[in-house]
Records
---
Amino acid sequence: MRKKFIAGNWKMYKTTAEAVAFAKAFKRLYADAGADAEAGVCAPFTQLAALKDAFAGSGVKLGAQNVHFEENGAYTGEISAPMLKEIGVDYAIVGHSERREYFAETDETVNKKLHKLYEYNILPILCVGEKLDQRDAGKAETVVKAQVEKDLSGLLPAQIDLLVIAYEPVWAIGTGRTATPEQAQEMCAFIRRTVASLYSAAAADKLRVQYGGSVKPDNAAEILGKADVDGALVGGASLVPEDFIRIVNFSANA
Ligand code: PEP
């Protein structure tokens, strides 16, 4: 049985003081909530060490939002997997559409990053998803399948067991426009079938597939109620503890 995983993506928001204040408040809410799902926060690099301390003992997972694919080197401004490991992060987002769009992330670099993260036992949250024109042209599945195939290239079955894939239709991110629960279910199930054909039904059964794109407290229960939606990657609604806990504890809103 896959436990649902709700991860916040804070993007480029919050100072460290604001992040620690969030953690203190969220820890209390998470402890009281009898939470339906595992919760995690993917924060800017500068906040990670302070958040590691602030979330200690809470069970809230800590994630980065990116990583470089090399171990070290002359890559000004970049952060490596061993640097993240030293802080004790659990997860790292890879291939978010904003990085694909604004920072020239490609399936090739995404693939290299996944391999490097596994070397350091940091679990990837791999983002895939189609743009609006691709969906309108009936190409959503073709686009997502190609991303999954290229991004996972060379990974071992045991690594797939630990993977999280976030299906994030680009047209639904930060737009207030959400995929319908049926669209989310269809594509999450399609991703699982794709992984089953690349690896095995057993690996696909363990894989957690999140939906991401304007998930809010008021729509979370319906989306997360779908059989193949194993959680959510949440941007805007993860910034306020009282909103985020309502998503983590989604069944209370059903
Ligand atoms: C995201 O950043 O991954 C995301 C899904 O953002 P939002 O929830 O704000 O659409």
---
Amino acid sequence: MSYTVAKGNQRADPDELEEMRMPLEGVVDLRSDTVTRPTGEMRRAMAEAEVGDDVYGEDPTVNHLEKRAAELFGKEAALFVPTGCMGNLISIKTWTHHGNEVICEERSHVNLYELASMSAIAGCMPRVARGEDGILTWKEIEAVIRPKIYYDSQTALICLENTNNMAGGTVYPTERVDEICEHAHAAGLKVHLDGARIFNAAATLGENVAPMTKGADSVMFCLSKGLGAPVGSMMVGTKAFIEKARMYRKMFGGGMRQAGVIAAAGLIALEKSPGRLHIDHENAKRLAEGIAEIPGLRIDPKKVRSNIVIFDCSRAGMTAVELCDAVHVHGVWAQDTALYSVRLVTHCDVDRAGCEKALAVLKEVVTKAQKAGA
Ligand code: TLP
């Protein structure tokens, strides 16, 4: 579709802009919360954004977004980065030296889905610990810290993930994060928080992100996931940390020049979206409850705490890929995450009716497969 957003001073028709946002007709895309389309308001703000060269620090919209992010997290400074992966990598690079180890949860994004960048680029080894439902305790972390012996590689950083995506969007109690940070600092270690979905965690806990993250030395959060912006993530921390991070962002190719056009959408996402995340969480709960009633599919709905629903299909007579392919034909898009594991993620472009459709299609497909196998 080709369209004009704004011509000169003439504003685009808001209804037309809303229409452009519409997800693919007839499709319930639950593969991820990364798939959302920018709202009409975001598109308008993008078209009208004041911009400058951000590598010179001269983009007023980026500067505004960074100031707002720092304020919201109660940190000294912030940095706009193109992606969550880059934000995590820059943080790891900033806090470590080549040859260090980074402690992270087995299922964490930095361990599984960042192309081993912490090793390939930052020169670090992931040292994994397994937490119940993806939530680590200090004891589990302490057990994998390297002793201070010259012939051992040294632990430099602990990387927590809140919510823990591949554990099913599970949420850290804030006291747990505080406890881990206190012990880590006493042991001379830094804590980076992959808070790609920290606002989902905040919605679950009914808390604000600043007290939830006060012990973390650095936080990365995504504007382009549950918050619904088309592009971008933020890093927050001390001024000194952000100064170094800015240098590594440029080194990794992330200096973005007139980035105000995307920061403008990010600002709207940051101000407006956190307040609606409970809707996605209620929809996820509904999906989990419906899935638990489908013979052949397994999930404990009590464990679904945010917008991510991961279920097991090993008793459905089909692999996760087969199941995703089968529902896809009916306009329901899901993501396989292991041989018999399927993920559904709710977001602002899927409403309750979409979730009900997904459940009906899942039921139909699984029932059919079971009949065929019987
Ligand atoms: N997660 C994506 C996939 O890469 C798995 C998704 O669909 O959930 N941290 C966490 C916890 C993430 O879930 C993701 C993306 C990232 C970092 C990376 O963000 P981007 O995609 O912006 O680089």
